[in-house]
Amino acid sequence: MNAIFNKKYIPLFATAVVLIILYSIASVLYEGFFSILVITNIFYDNAYLGVIAIGMTFIILTGGIDLSVGSVFAFATILIASMIEKGYSAPMVILLAVVLGLIFGIFQGLLIHLFDMPPFLVTLGGMFFARGAAFMISMESIGISNKFYDWVLDDLMLRINDQVYLPASTLFFFGTIIVALYVAHLTKFGRCIYAIGGSEDSALLMGLPVGIVKVLVYGIGGMCSALGGVLYTFFTGSGNPSNGVGLELDVIASVVIGGTLLTGGSGYIVGTVMGVLIYGTIQCALMFDGRLNSWWLRIAIGVLLLLFILMQRILSKNSEPEV
Amino acid sequence: MRLVDKVLTNRLSWPIIGLILLFAFNGIYGEGFFHIEVMNGYLYGTIIDIINQGSKVMLLAIGMTLVIATGGIDLSVGSIMAVAGSIGALLVNESPDLSFGLVIIIALIATTIIGLINGVLVSYIGLQPFVATLIMMVTARGIALLITNGFIYTFEHEEFVFLGNGHFLMLPFTLTIVLIMALITLFITRKTAVGVFIESVGDNERASRFAGISTRKVKLMVYGFSGFCAGIAGLVATSNIKAADTIKLGEAMELDAIFAVVVGGTSLTGGKFSIIGSIIGAFLIQTLTTTMYFLGVPPEITTVPKAIVIILVCLMQSEKFRKKVVSVVKRSNA
């Protein structure tokens, strides 16, 4: 009993309860919402968001933040689309985009760690830098028509039965979840991330490689954003420099609604996945409804994010001394 | 040597040096950059245009300076501009009987309330400033889109058009607005205790509280004021193009405003601030933007050099960076 009702799992429980309640309400309100098709669709539609959110979870666990995710994501999509248009091989281009995302993230991490600059400021700079760089490649959306893309979209999937199948994006999302779970909970690197988020000074005194881990975490964040961009090019069949404006809030919201503390040190990959599913459920319900403006999604996410942060404040008040 | 030291340590000298360099560049490469002529009794020219266009950033920077001086940040200013613009454009379209003064008051009350909500989230609930204002950045734009329902309202309302396009004493009326706002802010922060309160909160919040300053109220007020300034900037921007484009209005303006404040010598860690520095910084960024337009750089790409400059300025403000540079210089001297 104690293990289940451990205080550190309360945010995770809250997330699960919210997800179940939201999905149940939507199932009652909208006919056909409660179906395996809708569920697989939610996973498919938000695979890119999920991958980016997992990268962000690592960053927030160290007590940092990355505001550049939306722009790096857009940069990856337009880089891939424009280079495929010029005739380069698709897998190479995808690899290039992911490596560039990794390097960009590591560079941001270096600035943050070496010079003690606030993460939000460095990544805010990165956000505008990458957005401008995306527009430098092309001012407009570029379509992708490529054999590799056709092959992935048509053949690379897991058929469950006649109607239900899991496309490559969904499978990739699942793969990312498994890798992230392994890294976060079963490696030294993962323990070190939690330690830094708990108290950076203590982690340093314990002899943990704080600097390397902090820089790498931003690298992972940049790489995940680029990977999200890759998934999105498969999703839309195009690249667009104005993709993902405001995506950073959706990602941060998914992570925080998933129970990860913005102050770092506490949170779970599983929570983030549930956070993404909550986001997906609200989005899907708005689509089912059809009457509501899509901007309600942003407002709903903003309010939900606020509520969860408030809940975290109240929960952590008892253990934290008043500043 | 002493004079050089004095110039280099003065916070205002950096933006002024930057401005002189940009002017020199434009004087050499930009044809007719300094040309000013009188047409129909008004002054026209590139520099006048920079002042007119830069007025929005200047207004935002005035509010942002105080927020940054308390150690905070306001990322929502661009979206708050959109709210002000959409309320203004909606009211002059849907209820033409309303006096324009009332329209302005309603729009500014709304944006001040949004700013105050930021303030409550930061000071009373204790959210990190960038988180609270990031939420507001997205939510406020959603609100603006709901107000206009996605339409782009255009208008020919005489007084509203005058706000951003009119002239006063041969100069753009927007300059008058900026001057009035700057003078009021300077008076409040330099002739009353408010300025000291703000600086002390930014320097050391805890010590300020023990000294009896109501730190929460100070923070609440600066965010409210930032919302108010963003509201005026939004109305001016809407008037400039005689339409409220809720998606584009104020987009990436928070970057320009932060740029202006940081370049103007106010440290992002809070404490001492300079309103005049921020206004010079705003003038600098608008000159930079206009220069890039002259060079044929599309507006979307101008964020790249701006982002680089902001990061460089912040690097120079970073203690660790300074120490590293000093140690490298010493090593090479030895």
In short, what is this structure?
The complex is a heterodimer of chains A (323) and B (334). Chain A has 323 residues and is mainly α.
Explained architecture:
- The complex is a heterodimer of chains A (323) and B (334).
- Chain A is mainly alpha-helical and 323 residues long.
- In chain A, 72% of the residues lie in helices and 3% in strands.
- Chain A has 14 helices and 4 strands.
- Chain A has helices at residues 10-29, 36-45, 47-61, 69-85, 90-115, 119-137, 147-155, 168-186, 188-198, 200-205, 210-236, 247-257, 269-289, 295-317, and strands at residues 142-143, 157-159, 165-167, 238-239.
- In chain A, strand 2 (157-159) and strand 3 form a beta hairpin.
- Chain A is globular, with a radius of gyration of 20 Å.
- In chain B, 50% of the residues are buried.
- In chain B, a hairpin with a 2-residue loop joins strand 1 and strand 2 (42-45).
- Chain B contains 15 helices and 6 strands.
- The mean pLDDT of chain B is 87.
- A two-stranded antiparallel ribbon of chain B has the order 1-2.
- By secondary structure, chain B is mainly alpha-helical.
- In chain B, helix 5 packs antiparallel against helix 6, helix 12 (253-263) packs across helix 13 and helix 12 (253-263) packs parallel to helix 14.
- At the A-B interface, helix 5, helix 6, helix 12 and helix 14 of A face helix 6, helix 14 and helix 15 of B.
